[in-house]
Amino acid sequence: xxxxxxxxxxxxxxxxxxxxxxxxxxxxxxxxxxxxxxxxxxxxxxxxxxxxxxxxxxxxxxxxxxxxxxxxxxxxxxxxxxxxxxxxxxxxxxxxxxxxxxxxxxxxxxxxxxxxxxxxxxxxxxxxxxxxxxxxxxxxxxxxxxxxxxxxxxxxxxxxxxxxxxxxxxxxxxxxxxxxxxxxxxxxxxxxxxxxxxxxxxxxxxxxxxxxxxxxxxxxxxxxxxxxxxxxxxxxxxxxxxxxxxxxxxxxxxxxxxxxxxxxxxxxxxxxxxxxxxxxxxxxxxxxxxxxxxxxxxxxxxxxx
Amino acid sequence: xxxxxxxxxxxxxxxxxxxxxxxxxxxxxxxxxxxxxxxxxxxxxxxxxxxxxxxxxxxxxxxxxxxxxxxxxxxxxxxxxxxxxxxxxxxxxxxxxxxxxxxxxxxxxxxxxxxxxxxxxxxxxxxxxxxxxxxxxxxxxxxxxxxxxxxxxxxxxxxxxxxxxxxxxxxxxxxxxxxxxxxxxxxxxxxxxxxxxxxxxxxxxxxxxxxxxxxxxxxxxxxxxxxxxxxxxxxxxxxxxxxxxxxxxxxxxxxxxxxxxxxxxxxxxxxxxxxxxxxxxxxxxxxxxxxxxxxxxxxxxxxxxxxxxxxxxxxxxxxxxxxxxxxxxxxxxxxxxxxxxxxxxxxxxxxxxxxxxxxxxxxxxxxxxxxxxxxxxxxxxxxxxxxxxxxxxxxxxxxxxxxxxxxxxxxxxxxxxxxxxxxxxxxxxxxxxxxxxxxxxxxxxxxxxxxxxxxxxxxxxxxxxxxxxxxxxxxxxxxxxxxxxxxxxxxxxxxxxxxxxxxxxxxxxxxxxxxxxxxxxxxxxxxxxxxxxxxxxxxxxxxxxxxxxxxxxxxxxxxxxxxxxxxxxxxxxxxxxxxxxxxxxxxxxxxxxxxxxxxxxxxxxxxxxxxxxxxxxxxxxxxxxxxxxxxxxxxxxxxxxxxxxxxxxxxxxxxxxxxx
Lengths: 305, 660
Hints:
The complex is a heterodimer.
Chain A: H1 4-21, H2 39-45, H3 47-53, H4 73-78, H5 82-87, H6 101-112, H7 121-124, H8 143-146, H9 151-161, H10 163-168, E1 173-174, H11 184-187, E2 201-202, E3 206-207, E4 222-223, H12 225-229, E5 240-241, H13 252-257, H14 287-290, E6 296-297
Antiparallel strand pairs in A: 1-5, 2-3, 4-6
Helix pairs in contact in A: 2-3
Chain B: H1 5-15, E1 42-53, E2 57-58, H2 60-66, E3 72-83, E4 92-100, E5 105-114, E6 118-131, E7 151-165, E8 171-192, E9 195-218, E10 221-239, E11 259-285, E12 288-315, E13 320-334, E14 337-346, E15 352-377, E16 380-409, E17 412-428, E18 438-456, E19 460-469, E20 482-495, E21 498-511, E22 518-531, E23 539-557, E24 564-583, E25 593-605, E26 609-621, E27 626-640, E28 644-659
Antiparallel strand pairs in B: 1-3, 1-28, 2-28, 3-4, 4-5, 5-6, 6-7, 7-8, 8-9, 9-10, 10-11, 11-12, 12-13, 12-14, 13-15, 14-15, 15-16, 16-17, 17-18, 18-19, 19-20, 20-21, 21-22, 22-23, 23-24, 24-25, 25-26, 26-27, 27-28
């Protein structure tokens, strides 16, 4: 693995040097400044969009002198529009939905980079998957379309692309999303987060599941290692399952024995199987009948009380 | 209340009668407002009505565990937005509420904002969670006792408040408070050597999370510093009812039956989490963005446990019977947890983006407990044991990723990259190998990343993501090891009124190590379509169909014989949802609408299940601002496994939707 770090450093330095070379040289003549037409000029042709935009929170750009776009809110995203106003040609104006997602995002990030949810964008945001901001946020319409807050609307929006995930919520045992009691963003941060699959965190870096399942929070004197090492998904399918309690297996014993079945086989954790337990008896088919503190115990290493 | 229902049906019909035409003399000429047509200060809608729940066929406890909707008057939804024309107190206030009136999940939300002054939000949820599924092998079933020994009936309430001051300015202080509380009861097991006794239990917990900090926003730089504290309290009680509890085992031990006459367990946990979060993001040059986070939390918990029980018990260590037991324990646990990440996006040339990210997550849990256990026979001490335990869990996780996105042209973007995940963990050794002290494992995984995005105009888009790892070291037998994961999403806007989308996802994971032989394959194919001819005024259909298969095989050791067996898990099924809207002929704005559809889920395999939720709805506008509707839903679950688990239930709703 000795090559990995140097290779990364070389690539990053190369990118930095090429990028820096693109900066305009000092003393070079600046290009002539493009001309702006002002929002009123846009309104003349795009009346319906202009009217809808009055209800959008972005409208405040129109009056905000500090940001430098007062009277030119449309052009803050669409670029200088004087040429387009004159020619009425689509080619003469910037139309973000037609841009590559990366470039469209840069257009938004001119202002929104400085927002905390976007700090993990590079690490695991939708931007990596080529989903531009505009795919989820409607810039021209009412606030609920810009930033949905109703769980049902959020879920509908996510399901538009993540149909397979939404299909899992049609199973009998599930988190209550179809009922509108929860939304996808309760557990996932669509702008990205360091944990995989955009999972949310609470209390700085604890798994987001503890927000509601506080009794499983710990710390426990006797931890059940998979909870910390692999998270709740080691045993549960959070979107929905045909198995009660969202378990990954139909019978509790298999859920447990699939890990507790070796002595260091393949270097895996999990220990040896519980000796003397006769699985022909229903007493031993549900491991959690006795090992009731399966998420961790303050009392017993065997997680029994 | 049921007697009033016919009136609810008849009232809309009466309301449809043509309104008396005002006499010309009464008609006043419309006066033009001197002010420009201002927006309404209050907008939104309210949706309320009455739900009738038919008799539940099948298992009522399963119905309560899965659906649990109740009968009676309900506020199905309230969505109101208020704008203060003077903008003195607020610019905009939004109130939302859903499912009030005894439903198992009630939600409410308030958002108030005044530009450059404050931004306040309050979110409340009350979720009832009932779980009494006869899905677990019941040791007492042969005696005719249907008792789920792991069941719960709880309510969980959470409230979140957040206040941001001076939003939109350079320095934004913020403070937030969350309270999460749960309480309920259930059935659990009072476990003692040789027998276990199903008993009722009570539990309640709450946590208070207060945090605050400041955000610094500059043109090319953002920094957030947040500090917070969570204090929580968990209280669990296990107790016995009157009478002798024979437990799950009726077979005598050395000629005597084991039983529990009286027993109590009490666990009291007080915990505290202090945490710090620092986040920065910057765009120092046009060609680079950087971001990073530092997160630290230190959860700590102090516990007190006590137990007393009387009856007839057997101590396998000393091979003696005893009649009562007194146990007391105090314990402490601490879990410092540090995470950090750094990422950069470089755009050296116009078509290329290079993404570099690194993260680390380090946690160690240290716990200690001191237990005193006294066994007595008829009040006389038989044995007193003390046990001091210490436990330690260590986790170090690291991830480094380098990826590139190259725009081949305006229509295609190629993704490629490499992720390296490495770490180690040590956990206390399990029972029989306890003397070894600890078990350790390493995590090492190289992952190749690839992907392609195609955008053919704005009508066709295809997104393909693929990652694969040759497998190296993983923590558990079922962890990701030698795997490949692929996702393809395609969308085609056939016509402005017709869009179709197809999704394909695959996860193929295996661990061929001797003694494990894990083989897992999951596939999901989804096809969805949305057709709204003519803007959906007369007809629209939205449908989605998913075909999924899951196969898992893994070798395990049968505990009492140590024979190798294969654990199979299979799922092979279909799920679908559809909703059809049909506009019916009407007069002017009064156009009735019929909607029908629903969802189905059917699978065969390790746990065959069928779950149907068809529905139909008839809505009748009474005016431009009021609508009456009637709705029918059917819930049907069939899942035979240990016992027949299933139910059938019709529900009817009659309601009104009023625009504010």
